[in-house]
Sequence to fold (304 residues):
Amino acid sequence: MSMLTLKGPRWVTVRQHRRALWTLSAAVSASLAAVTALRWWASYAADPYEVGAGWALREGMGHAGTAMLLLPLLVGAFTAGPVVARELESGTYRLALTQSTTPRAWLASKAVLAAAAATAGSAALVGVYRLGHAPLADSHQFTWADRGPYESTGTVVVAYCLLGVAVGTLVGQLVRRTLPAMAVTGLVTGVVMLVLSSLRWSILPIRTLTAPVAAGPPKLSTGDFMTDLGLTTGSGGRLSEGACFERTRSMSQCPADLDVTGWYLEYHPVSHYWPTQSVETAVVLVLAALSLWGAFAVLRKRHP
Fold:
């Protein structure tokens, strides 16, 4: 969007935060250059776990996954502080309201700019992450269900960034002080991410495999995500994976009093990836919409 096509409060908002927008563009470009260089270097590595090119790619993408998890917190904090609360704290928003700008248009310009930048920037970073993640997929700590790769290769991180924008717009008005608003927004966004991640694998029904005790634990297909493994008893109960080993020091020999009849293994197949992403994304977007509705409700109450 060219600044020449922007008018009124939208032009002012872009003008105010042009440095942040340029910084975001530079961060995406630098990330793309770094990942491209690491992939090119790693393509010559004989062992991806050996210290050198392959190890550098794994370490780099590990840190990148962590950064992607923190991105919604950063987006929310910036929206709450520099974009909304700072103008309320300093009183400069009153100047905008004297320039034939309504309170609704003033806040909408803030929220729209932040949402557009968050969507474009996070989507671009997801593309960059997927580029670096591709040669590591299904390896240790880089499977589709691992924390970091799961969020960073799909749509949920974009949704969480939009949630950060919405929560930041609401908290910025309620707190009206830059640093406290940033802290509260980061905390709220982080708590929501933790809660939903703890419920993530309850969205779709878990599948179960069983096997006799002597046969050992059931085997998963490549790419499937194990959520639980243990022993079954004749009464239908379940014991921990190491219940027999603790007594007999053998995984295949169990004391008679335990009445162990076999193994069970619960898992999510790789086909659950996109359905889980879609449901979680939808839930986060609903929370974002409610937060944004709350932000404008607060605005209407203070500026009827």
